[in-house]
Specification:
8 helices; alpha/beta; single chain; 5 strands; five-stranded mixed sheet
């Protein structure tokens, strides 16, 4: 599988042409669920070893994500950042998402020279410049890579949480407000892993 035309590396290549070498793609997953942390990833691709078929994680099958994620951990610089349920409830999901992004960037082995960030807001407190790209996970391979590893990481977090709090279907719905999850929330109540600031959870409480 090769890159689709929309996934040409024009954002990365424009920066590389200017001598900006360490370009980090940044994306988050988990803004919509009723439970669990929000997770972000920062990825600096190895220009000599970029896996084929990178794309927005939502457009890939589970099998394809699970194939690509280990390749990215092996070939690229990858860092994960999280914001907890408590931090989501104390601030809001937007601020928690930006916090998770900042933590991901700060966790890279070396500071990046430039960020390519999915969406219209870049995390604060970062010393390098950033370019925000709406729909970036489908337009920049660096951001697509971040979306893939963040998705796999968060899904694994929710699968482990499902063994501690069974009945909510987190092993398959990852905490999103599916019919099964909302029914369990009404019947079983909220867990410490639920976001109490989110209306469906707040209404139950």
């Amino acid at each position: 599988m090769r890159f689709e035309p929309a996934m040409e590396m024009r954002f990365e290549e424009a920066l590389w042409a200017q001598g900006v070498n360490r370009v980090a793609g940044v994306d988050e997953v988990g803004r919509g669920p009723l439970a669990g942390p929000v997770v972000a990833a920062a990825v600096v691709l190895n220009r000599a070893s970029i896996p084929d078929g990178l794309n927005d994680s939502k457009k890939l099958t589970i099998k394809r994500r699970e194939f690509l994620a280990p390749l990215l951990w092996q070939s690229a610089e990858v860092s994960i950042g999280q914001a907890s349920v408590e931090e989501i409830d104390e601030t809001n999901i937007l601020q928690a998402s930006l916090l998770a992004m900042r933590r991901a960037v700060e966790g890279l082995p070396k500071p990046p020279d430039h960020l390519l960030v999915d969406g219209n807001r870049a995390p604060g407190g970062i010393s390098c410049d950033a370019t925000c790209i709406v729909g970036g996970d489908g337009r920049s391979p660096s951001i697509a890579a971040a979306s893939i590893v963040a998705k796999i990481w968060r899904d694994d977090v929710m699968k482990r949480a499902a063994t501690q709090y069974p009945g909510y279907g987190w092993e398959t719905n990852a905490g999103y407000p599916t019919k099964c999850h909302k029914s369990a929330l009404r019947n079983l109540g909220a867990t410490p892993f639920h976001r109490r600031s989110f209306k469906p959870v707040r209404d139950i409480l």
